[in-house]
Structure formats: C-alpha cells, structure tokens
Amino acid sequence: MKKQILSLLLCCCLLITVLPITASAEGETPTGGAITRPSIKDIIGHIGSSAYDAYDASLNFWNDYGNNISGGFSQAGERWNIIKNTPDFASDYGDAVKVGDGIFTAAGAATNIMDSVSAAHQLTHPQDNPYAAHPALSTAYDTLTAWQAMMNWAEMAVGDKDPTGGVKFTNYLLGEAVKEWSNTATQTALLDYADHSTLIGTFDITIQNVNDYYTHLFQDMFYPSRDAEWSLEDWWKKSYYDKLNFYAQMVKEGREKEFEWLRDQLLNMAPHTGGTVLPNNTEAKKPNIYLYPETETEITVTFEKPEYLTSSIPDYTGAWTVTASPDGKLTNAVGNSYSYLFYEALVKKKAFQTEEGFLVPADKRDEVFRRVLTDYGFNEQETADFIEYWSDYLTSGEDYVMYPILTDGVDTAMPVSFSVKPDSITRIWFGFAHYDGSEIKKPEITPIERKGFTVVEWGGAVLD
Predict the structure, then answer these.
(1) Per-residue pLDDT at 220 exceeds 60
(2) Are 138 and 129 within 8 A, CB to CB?
(3) Comparing C-alpha atoms, which of 445, 401, 382, 453 is closest to residue 424?
(4) Any signal peptide, and if so, which residues (predicted)?
(5) Exposed, middle or buried by CB within 10 Å (0-12, 13-18, 19+), for 32?
(6) 61-93 per-position pLDDT tens digit
C-alpha cells in the first residue's frame, strides 16, 4: 500500500516537473538534447492514469483497513450521541451539536460510499474473492458484503427513526458476519471444510446449474425477442471474453483447478458467442453416429448437453428423430437420407487420456488409420469415412499420436440417449497430438461387439 502511494506521488512529481521543462525548453532539454513536446492527449492520459492509480490505491487501502476505520467512526458516533444527549448540553452548545452532527453525517456517507465501491469491486473482480475456489462460498460472501453495503445506507437514512432498532441491529449482524468471514482463520477453516465436503460440493454444482439456467434464459428467451439496437449480444460477448481472459490468466498462474467452475461456465457460454477457444477446451470434430437396428425403426437421439454443440447435420433442434434401416440408412421426417448423424461439440481436453496411443507417421497416415479402426471392429464404410476426414484434416507432413478414449469416456464428455435402447453401443474418439519423439505405450484393443440394435460412433479432437 505504501509503495503504491509513494509511486503515485513520484508520478505526480515527475509529471509536474516534466511539463514546465517541456513547455519552456523550446524543443531542447537543459543539456541540449532534443525532446518531444507532449500533446494535450498525452497530458490528459497522464492525468487519467494518475487518477486511476489514486483510485486503485485508495480502494486497496479501503479493502485492507476499511472495516477498522468504519468501525472507529461508528464507535465515535455512538460516543458523540451519548455526549450530546447529556442534560443541558444541546442548549449550552447548540452550534457545536450542529457541527458535530454534520461531521458524523459526512463521515458516515464517506464510509458508506467506500463500502459500496469496495463491494462493487468485489462483485466485478471474482479473482479478489477469498472463496473463489468454491462458487457456493463465493456467492454467500458476495451476498453478505452486498447486503451490508445496502444496510449501511438504510441505517444512515432511517436508523435513528426506527423505534425497534431492527435496522441498526441487522446492519450490526451483517457487519459482524462479513468481519468473521473475512478473518484469515475462518477462511482457512471454511475452505478446508469445503474441499472435503460433499454438501459444499453439491452447493457448488447447484450454483453452477443456476448460472447455466440464466445463461439459457437470456440467450434462448430474452435475446431473440430484442431488436439489434438493444445489443445484448455485444454485452454477452464482452462478458464472455472478460471471463475468458481472467480464466486464461488463472491457467497461466497454475490455478486452473480452483476455477474449474468458471471453465465450465465458459464452456456453456461459448457456443452462443461463436467462440471455441478455451485454455482447457477443445472441439470434438466430426463425431459420426451410425445406427443399425435389426428392423426398420424410428429412433430419437437426444444430447444431455446440447449447449455444447457447435454444428450438426441434420440440424439438431432439441433432438434427432430418424427412421433407421438395418443397413445404416437414416431418413428424417422430410425424406432426407443420411449415412450417419453428424455433430461437433465443445469438450474438455481432460476428457482425453494421453497415456496410451498409436503412432501415426505422416507418410503412413491412411495405413495406420485403416489398421487401427479395423482392429477396433469398425466396418469398411465407417473406416473409409474416418480416413477421408482425418487424413486431410491433420496438418500435412506432421507425425501424430492418436490417443483413444472409449465409450465410458465419450459418454462423460458428451452424454447421449436413444429412445430405443441399443443392444450394443460403442463410442470411440481419438485425441490427436503432435509426436514429440518419446516412447509410446500401445493400448489393448477390445473389438466392437455387434449384436441386435447396434450403435457405433467415431470422432476426434486435436489436443495441441
């Protein structure tokens, strides 16, 4: 804090010193060197920067010591009320009473302003919240500080006029709660409990689901009914990229584990903004779902997390409903035919394992793809579709390693359900990473079991 104030003073002194020299030197320094005369824009920029530094320093000061100062003013105000209410004091020192009341009213307003600014800063800077690692605790702490800031103003406005004393008492309780939650020992104890508590973990998920709900509420209900001038899309994009930049910074600092909830929130937001880049996120490219019923059957396919989708063929509007034939031909309600259901989706990189894989040399790409997919039991058409896409999609001339994730892993990354229960289902994705020359452990292969109504899916993602 002292360093910030000292730096601010030095900046101001430097600005005050430089400007007169510049204005009087007529293009030369006292030693005869050429200098550049600052423009009005430069001067305003210097002043603005200094003002922001002063604001930031005062805010940090208030965050560090504000409760103590506010408490000191409050105690002094109570003592003043006792003194001025002693017999004959008001009649003997009427002017002094007015001055004293004015001083404490002004002091109360000043502390309330700083409390409100501090609370607003906390709400808009999640990285400063001591409970940021847990959405539930973070929300509770934000709520306490926001209510305390509001009750400060309520007490100032009607506290003395409230015969029950309820306003003052409520504000006192909120103040004590915030003070206790801000205590280092309390924070350590609560965070330690939260890290091992199923209850807090459940609350964290609940808070995240509430955030997801409001994401959909704005995007799917409010935004379509607004005209372009309202520019909710611009606001949403700014909100997304502000959070994205903050999350990227946390990843850079090695704190991604603390902010998994924010990453998940960004995953939900990304499809609505058209963005697909997250530090811990990748896009599953061209997963194809093949359906092989024993007889011609109408089947509805539904994703549990459709908000992760970035594209689909046929267009996914809440579900896919097709008539599937035993040979794999799919026909939708308007008569269009497909060989498979196609989609792409945002998924977490950690869905892909990188412990076991297959080396894919650049000059043997088709050969390796055919061998691996055949070993897994994909049929000729499924294998040909895979080779056609991935041979061209991967960077030409580069060696890769393909890391398989099997049905359970794919189900976790992108859950899907079928109106007719499959007798056998195999979903295999491959994560592709550039080969770095290290030793590769090959996985054991369990071939696809095709019996009864069979569902087969392949897909992939580039991991680096």
Answers:
(1) no
(2) yes
(3) 453
(4) 1-25
(5) exposed
(6) 555 555 566 666 666 766 777 776 777 776 777
pLDDT in tens, 321-366: 999 999 999 999 999 999 999 999 888 888 899 999 999 999 999 9
Strand partners, 283: 346
Read off the tokens for 255: 């704190």
Is the Cβ–Cβ distance between 324 and 293 less than 8 Å?
Answer: yes
d(C-alpha 84, C-alpha 39), whole Å: 56
Q: pLDDT by residue (tens digit) across 302-322?
A: 998 887 888 899 999 889 999
Burial (CB < 10 A; 0-12, 13-18, 19+), residue 24, is exposed
How would you list the strands of the sheet with 330-331, edge to edge?
337-338, 330-331, 320-324, 297-303, 416-418
C-alpha 241/C-alpha 273 separation (Å) is: 9
Provide the terminal-to-terminal Cα distance of the chain, rounded to the nearest Å: 42
- Sort 266 into a burial class: Cβ within 10 Å, 0-12 / 13-18 / 19+: buried
Rounded Cα gap, residues 250 and 70, in angstroms: 33
Dist CA 343 CA 286 (whole Å): 6
pLDDT of residue 340: 97
Q: How far is CA 433 from CA 72, 194, 331, 332, 390, in A?
A: 60, 36, 36, 36, 13
| Block residue for tokens 């584990």 | 257
Burial of 444 (0-12, 13-18, 19+ CB in 10 A): exposed
* Letter string b/e over residues 283-316, b meaning 16 or more CB atoms within 10 A of that residue's CB: bbbbbbbbbbbeeeeebebebebbbbbbebebeb
* Six token digits for residue 382: 């499924």
Query: Which pTM does this prediction carry?
Result: 0.46
Report the SS3 class of residue 1.
Answer: coil
What DSSP assignment string belongs to 189-220?
Answer: HHHHHHHT-HHHHHHHHHHHHHHHHHHHIIII
Omega into 314 within 30° of 0, i.e. cis? yes
Contact indicator for 461, 431 with CB cutoff of 8 Å = yes
Helix (H, G, I), strand (E, B) or coil at 323: strand
- Written as six digits, the tokens of 83 are 């003194």
The token pair at 68 is: 């103590």
Q: Show the tokens assigned to 326.
A: 């035993």
